[in-house]
User: Fold this.
Amino acid sequence: MRYKVVLAYDGTNYCGWQVQPNGISIQHVVEDVISSIQKVETHIEASGRTDAKVHAKGQVFHFDGHVNMTCEQWLKAMNAKLPEDMLVKEVTEVEDSFHSRFDAKWKNYDYYINLGEYDPFERNHVLQLCRPLDLDKMRECAKCFIGSHDFTAFNANSLQERPNQVRNIYDLWIEERGQIIVLHFYGEGFLRYMVRMITQTLIEVGKGRLSIEKVQELLQQAKKHSAPYNASAVGLYLVKVGYEDYKEE
Amino acid sequence: MRYKVVLAYDGTNYCGWQVQPNGISIQHVVEDVISSIQKVETHIEASGRTDAKVHAKGQVFHFDGHVNMTCEQWLKAMNAKLPEDMLVKEVTEVEDSFHSRFDAKWKNYDYYINLGEYDPFERNHVLQLCRPLDLDKMRECAKCFIGSHDFTAFNANSLQERPNQVRNIYDLWIEERGQIIVLHFYGEGFLRYMVRMITQTLIEVGKGRLSIEKVQELLQQAKKHSAPYNASAVGLYLVKVGYEDYKEE
Assistant:
């Protein structure tokens, strides 16, 4: 029986999703918990990796169950054993052919930035920029990224490993919540550091250090290493992975 | 020159305000920073201790400055050297006779409780109770504590160290913020664990496990160890220390 699991985690204390030689990975912790529950060495497969310190409110992974347990029992058993910085939110039975990565149709990432006074309580969850930004300019610039573009300049995957770096961003908008702004990214998929690089690019535009014309040029030229902007992992959340066609939320 | 400082800190990684043989205390970290700035071993005196893992949005301490620096320079110098889980919010010059503890007229503590789904991001900042409570009953019970009472049953100071355990609670009310409730305590001063013991007492009332009559009885009898309730440090914040007469906020 194959299960689809929706998982939230605070990425602060982890080296990221993927098992690494140094540091504790989220994948490793979750695999240990599931393996110990069903007493079978179990591999889990996620919708995609998240980097060190990146958070998730709705990461999705799948695994194959080898014991007679309901979804509700799996959810409770996992939450009883997982550390307090992780929470299984949903467990559902899926077809044996379901694959959390290959079947994903879209993803939503959010990036949180505090423009106000430094907040020591949110230092691991919200980028503490603590200065004003020109949101009008950022919103105008955000539109450049919406749609299907070659994001070669705005990600860290090499062209050898990913020859096709065209991706479709369905929506990218900026919400104001008091002194906090939230950048909402919806797209069919995101390359390595793509959300963080676009975020830092928008921050530079908001600071007045980078023009919208220059951003358009970088996007059109599509050259590796031409956009040297990468926001911290701290404010980034994988919010949702969609398995149906994208519809505006 | 004596300075009054308003300090915020995330108490998660500290053994509390006071210097302890084991663990890192907030006092120790701040004294080190000030001593290194003015190159004189400096003692700081707080409005009161906070326990391990308790947070502050507005702790107040004072110290004596021995260098020619403005308040603004002190603020910047301290924030440059303090760890990222602390923030100096205000520095003001005060009379040489000012004392952060003896001159304090009232304090405001807030206690945060999540009644909804477990939130892994807020595990160190909000008590994760994750069950409904009868807020009407809690609000009714909260009224018992308002005013001047002998809080012998509701604190952990011995009668040897504090023979007079009568304190005046000016206000105690419960705010709803979605799935989070916030208990706001205003009083002339609070004994050890007093806020946490009243909070857990109110939680027990909200769960239906303790009657308001029983709480009134415990308060009137004023016997040590009669109220075995003590909420976790996690949701507790020292919000404000007042140096003027209390006025309803």
Residues 61 and 89 of chain A are 12 Å apart (CA to CA). The interface with chain B takes residues 8-10, 55, 79, 84-87, 89, 117-121, 123, 125 of chain A (CB under 8 Å). Chain A has five helices and ten strands. The beta strands of chain A are 2-9, 45-46, 55-64, 86-94, 106-114, 127-128, 147-150, 166-177, 180-187, 236-242.
